[in-house]
């Protein structure tokens, strides 16, 4: 996929897990551009690679036999795979990063034109393009080729407006899929189930051939291509269609050298755009904010450079680009997560629970939410206390059997504009209210936070909120295990605990945010953000990790470099809070590396090794 936010799988194993890094035997690769060339001559359809500084160009794969026409390339650094779309045989293939182990995954209905990857869940999103309108589709399948699902069929100007999808970009953080439509000269967005189709940009001067996203800032970057050179551009637009900007216009050999833009990818960590130029058979880079292009590799002798994708290996030390939202999404047993962004609005971005804003409930302006690390411009749900709330479609969801039977957790951030004692009513933060079987977090008129999970007893934080707590963000978590434990946490620290009575998961109510669906009038007044519900009692370590991630203190980057026959793993940990752990596989089991301090030297010979930092 194009997003750099998901090149690593977050794994919450300890109070402050930071990252994992892969050490490949014999080498420690750097950032690499993989690109595909396309031609009517089979042997000129290739996959090649080049380092981002323009060196070490390598031919990895040449089409032959049943493979015909390379039309799209996608790279998965997490699982060390390349994926190719074959528009001649209407097929999708995989191969390893060295160009070997070519494997057919599945046949497609028509010309396969675009690929996007969910590397964590191992799913392929793809477009097919055809002269027959109804064969222009967006679909999804597993890496195995199974569970193919139709998400969207083009309906043309008399239908949904979509005409010819040519490329995709996936944003797993905001649960959105973006489609470049060369037929309608437009960019579209939709959710990961294919619903809520929205035109982001239209009336483009050239056909959009490729796109990439910046999830944190909710921006779409795209290229347009045309026989008219000045319509060959690189542009950006906000997810909401606002703030469109042209970053580059091709001016040809007599100008900036760029002739025909065909694809792009983003290096958000280093604020660079990499793009292919089929007119001059070259690859270029450009500052993320636009400016003068820099030639990466020119004079490519293969046929037309069609696609370019940036590979950032898992040992490149980009852990700072994992955000609070990544960790919430990666925490096991997540039922629903409402980040209240302009893209998700009242809806959960996980597990498909749409919501409906009631009254004057609305997403606030940029920076209305808590200032979470690596989430610039974060927004929140603004509630006026007069009938405004979010009515979600989640009902119940707690497990009745299994290891997590009759457990649950609700987490999020709240900001009071007035105290409940002054407003003269209870404030519901979030709840699955049900008479005699509650799952409610609320602040009552004594200004104390209380958590109900049974027929009436509550765990109470006996330190009442005061005027000093107004207009400031507080992280909360409420967890329980029926008949065993029930706890309230504020800013990552436990503040109250008790043993609850019995909770019956079969009688769960509807999940509401900012009000109760059973107990009338308990309208929250202020702002709420990042509300999430789990069907498991989260651990104290998980909660402290989430809070630390929001503040940007949970991550200590691991860096790796080659030194002769060794690799050197280093990190900055001035307070000595972390230990280095290693495992032979990404899933563990991880054990402490005896006596390891930064920098730590490890031989490159032997099997791959994964590293992570964990709190003492």
The CATH superfamily of the largest domain is known as: TolB, C-terminal domain
- Which structural class fits the helix and strand makeup? mainly beta
Distance between the termini: 34 Å
Can you tell me the residue ranges where pLDDT is under 50 for at least 5 consecutive residues?
A: 1-29, 314-322, 573-577
Q: Report the CATH C-level class of the largest domain.
A: Mainly Beta
Number of domains: 2
What is the CATH architecture term of the largest domain?
6 Propeller
Number of DSSP strand runs? 46
The level of helicity is: under 10%
Radius of gyration: 26 Å
Shape: globular
Residue-averaged pLDDT: 83
What's the tally of helices? 3
- Give a short account of the largest sheet: 8 strands, antiparallel
**Assembly state of the chains shown:** single chain
CATH domain fold name of the largest domain: Neuraminidase
Strand fraction: 35-45%
Structural topology:
Elements (H helix, E strand, L loop, with lengths): L19 E4 L8 E7 L7 E6 L6 E5 L7 E7 L4 E6 L4 E6 L6 E5 L3 E8 L4 E7 L7 E6 L6 E5 L11 E7 L4 E6 L4 E6 L6 E4 L5 E8 L4 E7 L7 E6 L6 E5 L11 E7 L4 E6 L4 E6 L6 E4 L6 E8 L12 H7 L3 E5 L16 E4 L3 E2 L17 E4 L4 E7 L11 E10 L3 H4 L3 E6 L7 E4 L5 E4 L5 E3 L13 E8 L3 E6 L2 E6 L11 E4 L11 E10 L5 H12 L6 E6 L2 E6 L6 E6 L7 E2 L7 E4 L5 E7 L1
Antiparallel strand pairs: 1-46, 2-3, 2-25, 3-4, 5-6, 6-7, 7-8, 9-10, 10-11, 11-12, 13-14, 14-15, 15-16, 17-18, 18-19, 19-20, 21-22, 22-23, 23-24, 26-40, 27-30, 28-29, 29-40, 30-39, 31-36, 31-40, 32-33, 32-39, 33-34, 34-35, 36-37, 37-38, 41-42, 42-45, 43-44, 43-46
């Amino acid at each position: 996929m194009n997003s750099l936010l998901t090149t690593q799988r977050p794994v919450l194993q300890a109070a402050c897990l930071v990252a994992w890094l892969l050490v490949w035997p014999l080498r420690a690769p750097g950032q690499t551009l993989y690109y595909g060339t396309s031609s009517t001559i089979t042997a000129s359809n290739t996959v090649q690679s080049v380092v981002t500084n323009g060196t070490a160009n390598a031919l990895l794969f040449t089409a032959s036999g049943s493979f015909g026409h390379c039309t799209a390339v996608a790279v998965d650094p997490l699982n060390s795979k390349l994926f190719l779309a074959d528009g001649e045989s209407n097929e999708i293939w995989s191969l390893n990063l060295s160009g070997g182990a070519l494997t057919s995954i599945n046949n497609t209905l028509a010309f396969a034109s675009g690929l996007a990857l969910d590397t964590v869940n191992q799913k392929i999103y793809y477009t097919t393009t055809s002269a027959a309108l109804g064969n222009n589709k967006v679909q999804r399948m597993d890496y195995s080729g199974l569970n193919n699902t139709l998400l969207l069929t083009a309906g043309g100007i008399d239908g949904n407006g979509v005409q010819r999808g040519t490329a995709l970009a996936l944003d797993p953080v905001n649960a959105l899929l973006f489609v470049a439509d060369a037929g309608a000269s437009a960019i579209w967005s939709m959710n990961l189930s294919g619903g809520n189709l929205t035109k982001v940009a239209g009336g483009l001067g050239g056909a959009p051939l490729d796109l990439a996203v910046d999830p944190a800032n909710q921006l779409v970057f795209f290229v347009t291509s045309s026989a008219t050179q000045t319509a060959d551009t690189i542009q950006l637009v906000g997810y909401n269609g606002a703030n469109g900007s042209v970053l580059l216009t091709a001016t040809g050999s007599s100008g900036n050298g760029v002739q025909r833009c065909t694809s792009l990818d983003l290096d958000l960590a280093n604020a660079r755009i990499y793009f292919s130029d089929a007119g001059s058979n070259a690859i270029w880079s450009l500052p993320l904010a636009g400016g003068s292009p820099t030639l990466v590799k020119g004079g490519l002798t293969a046929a037309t450079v069609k696609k370019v994708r940036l590979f950032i290996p898992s040992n490149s030390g980009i852990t700072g680009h994992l955000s609070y939202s990544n960790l919430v999404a990666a925490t096991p047993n997540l039922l629903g997560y409402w980040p209240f962004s302009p893209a998700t609005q009242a809806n959960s971005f996980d597990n498909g629970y749409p919501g409906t804003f009631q009254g004057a409930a609305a997403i606030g302006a940029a920076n209305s939410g808590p200032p979470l690390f690596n989430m610039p411009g974060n927004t929140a749900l603004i509630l006026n206390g007069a009938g405004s709330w979010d009515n979600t479609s989640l009902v119940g969801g707690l497990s009745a059997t299994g290891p997590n039977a009759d457990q649950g957790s609700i987490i999020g951030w709240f900001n009071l504009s007035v105290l409940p004692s002054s407003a003269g009513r209870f404030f519901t933060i979030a709840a699955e209210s049900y008479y005699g079987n509650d799952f409610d977090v609320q602040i009552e008129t004594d200004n104390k936070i209380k958590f109900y999970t049974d027929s009436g007893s509550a765990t109470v934080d006996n330190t009442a909120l005061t005027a000093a707590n107004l207009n400031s963000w507080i992280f909360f978590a409420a967890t329980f295990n029926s008949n065993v434990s029930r706890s309230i946490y504020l800013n990552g620290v436990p503040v109250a605990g008790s043993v609850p009575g019995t909770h019956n998961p079969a009688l769960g109510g509807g999940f509401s945010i900012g009000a109760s669906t059973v107990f009338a009038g308990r309208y929250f007044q202020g702002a709420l953000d990042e509300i999430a519900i789990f069907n498991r009692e989260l651990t104290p370590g998980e909660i402290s990790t989430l809070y630390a991630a929001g503040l940007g203190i949970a991550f200590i980057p691991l860096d790796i470099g080659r030194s002769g026959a060794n690799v050197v793993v280093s990190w900055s940990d001035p307070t000595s809070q972390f230990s280095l752990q290693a495992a032979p596989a990404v899933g563990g089991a991880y054990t402490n590396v005896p006596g390891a301090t930064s920098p730590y030297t490890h031989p490159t010979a032997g099997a791959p090794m994964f590293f992570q930092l964990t709190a003492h």
